[in-house]
Amino acid sequence: LVQAWPYFATIMEKTFKEVLEPKIRAKNVHLKTCTFTKIHFGEKCPRINGIKAYTKEINRRQVILDLQICYIGDCEIHMDISKFNLGVKGVQLYGTLRVILEPLLTDAPFIGAVTLFFLQKPHLEINWAGMSNLLDVPGINVMSDSLIQDFIAARLVLPNRITVPLKKNMNIAHLRFPIPHGVIRVHLLEAENLVQKDSFLGAIRGKSDPYALLRVGTVQYRSKTVSRDLNPIWNETFEFVVHEVPGQDLEVDLYDEDPDKDDFMGSLLISLVDVMNDRTVDEWFPLSKTTSGHLHLKLEWLSLVNDQENLHEDKKGLSTAILIVYLDSAFNLPKNHFEYSNGECGAKKIKNNKYLKKTEREPSSFVLLTVGNKTQKSKTCNFSKDPTWGQAFTFFVHSAHSQSLHVEIKDKDRDSALGTSVVCLSHLLKDPNMTLDQRFQLDHSSSDSFIKMKLVLRALNVEEPDPQRVKAGVNASKQGPVRVVEKGGNQQQFSSPPKPEVSKVPPVSKDSAALESLPKKDSREDLDTNGSSAALVPSETVAGLNETEREQNPEHHPSSALHTRAVVVPALPVVQELRLAPSVTSLGSLPSSCFELSSSNLDLQNGTEMPLGEIQLTVRYASIRQSLVVLVNGCRNLVPSSNRGVDPYVRIYLLPDRRWTSRKKTSVKKKTLNPQYDEKFEFFESLEDVKKRTLDVAVKNSRPFISQERKELGKVRIDLSQEDLIKGFAQW
């Protein structure tokens, strides 16, 4: 990019002068004098911080890449409009850009087309210059930034895509508008222990008024506000179309409604890959970026099926189908609605010449599409009686048998209809694929005016989850390792938790959002209301099952759904509760394997060679920063060194360097055998040096200075010469 940047800048400068300037001038009378006085793209070029390539569970005829793009530019662009001098002096932009190369071909150029889009709205900051007189007006600065962001989002964020064909005569319509992956139905139920935000002159006064914002891609919904309640109950349902999995996530932000500025109360990021694999997730999720609070969501994944039996009307008023409208083009639109009145040509005498000129030119048309009470608007095609829009729209359908799609073509300059059309969705049911791709005759228009559309109807279907699959549950919110809590009984029983199945598709690490794990909720909500400690017991982990028997007959113990209440098993002395890890691949890793904490030189109470638990580490070499990054995720099933309980922390050396100054250590977690750290450490060494070193990781008990207790709980050594550090690994 550094080498090519000056050439790219020259092309862009030419484009601004020759293409953009005339376009801006044609937009509006006041912009006729617009000229670019300075266009300089600067020395700093965009940087690609990381690339992720997907190989599993995608079509073999495509390549999918995610690029983390960061542009902190020193570009300068100035333009004069009549008296004003307007300018930009520096731009910051970062986000995750997905690049899809498809279809792959057997002859040159080997790739049919390139499709680009941002998965989420990119972060954008613009440093304005020379607009001081205009920007002193409050609100305009913010407005212009957000307007430009919306402008980018409208073109570059899902479901919008830019598709560039590389081979001649390539039909790219199906690449620009693929059928969505599915629909996520979010039941926003309730929250508890939210942070109190309302205060008056520093003194706490009253409770907060919480509401939630839910977002997938560019679509955002707002819940109702529950006044004066830190444990609000909403019981609302929202539905989102999901276009890309992995890639898109559900974002939930909670705010306290205030007359001046709403206060932030915590957020949640949920990986839709996990919800898609689990089908339904009904959990209390801990909120992040705040000190307390949990949110109860029920999430349902609805797949799109070509099956009419699923189209019966829903009693609760929820959607049963989705209609996808590919709006292509129109032909022979009338110049104005006087020219044709209900299809009969009648010459109208218009006395005013000025008006005549306006009515004689070709129309600038846009389309309004309506299903039920939702209307969507297309872009405007200027001065054409055969406009081409090339856009896709999705609508939720409650009853395919009775609802219809209303299409109205309007002229931008005069608020008049150039033609309308009504398509009953029951027509789609006559086609086995529930698809119509044709020209539709326009009413209230000329006799040879048509609109070309493709309509696809798909039923929404909640599939039964795979009983063999370990559910992600609360870990859909991109979290760390399994947590196994001992309940009752003093006996030490070891039952290694089942390894989570590696989900086929690794979720995108959102600028390391996947690595910022959320705090775990304490285990009290897992207890049944009657206090029995047998909540959430997948059938594998009931202690006392014979280890060897389990290894021989793995298929005899399918794990029960994580959130169903299990039966109490009174015969067993210890019942363990299991929280399952998210798929290891959410850290972009290899298939999981275990670093057992070695029991060398440790005096175990039982004297046998028992495993001392496990630690989860993520290790990779960051070439740009020239450093080895070690992420300590957490430990599980540690063996206590005393009855007093343990306060574990993790200490790391990069051997042979044992100097006290170069050691790294995590914070101490109090009274737990399953600590969760999610702390990151860096060793700044060259890759050649790191390859010769060994990572020495010890889990220790923080104890009083004069205490007799054993300090070391377990240790792991990793020979870095054997690992692919650029690719990295995450393992237990």
Automatic annotation (TrEMBL):
SUPFAM superfamilies: C2 domain (Calcium/lipid-binding domain, CaLB). Residues 518-527, 547-558 have a biased composition (Basic and acidic residues). GO terms for biological process: endoplasmic reticulum-plasma membrane tethering; lipid transport. Belongs to the extended synaptotagmin family. Keywords: Calcium, Cell membrane, Endoplasmic reticulum, Lipid transport, Lipid-binding, Membrane, Metal-binding, Repeat, Transmembrane, Transmembrane helix, Transport. PROSITE patterns: C2, SMP. It is a peripheral membrane protein; Multi-pass membrane protein. Residues 158-285, 303-444, 611-732 form the C2 domain. GO terms for cellular component: endoplasmic reticulum membrane; plasma membrane. The gene is Esyt3. One of its GO terms (molecular function) is phosphatidylcholine binding. Residues 1-167 form the SMP-LTD domain. The keyword Iron-sulfur does not apply. PANTHER family: EXTENDED SYNAPTOTAGMIN-3, EXTENDED SYNAPTOTAGMIN-LIKE PROTEIN 2, ISOFORM C. The lineage of its organism: Eukaryota, Metazoa, Chordata, Craniata, Vertebrata. This is Extended synaptotagmin-3. It comes from the Eukaryota. It is found in: Cell membrane; Endoplasmic reticulum membrane. Its main location: membrane. Residues 470-560 are annotated as: Disordered. Residues 503-512 have a biased composition (Low complexity).
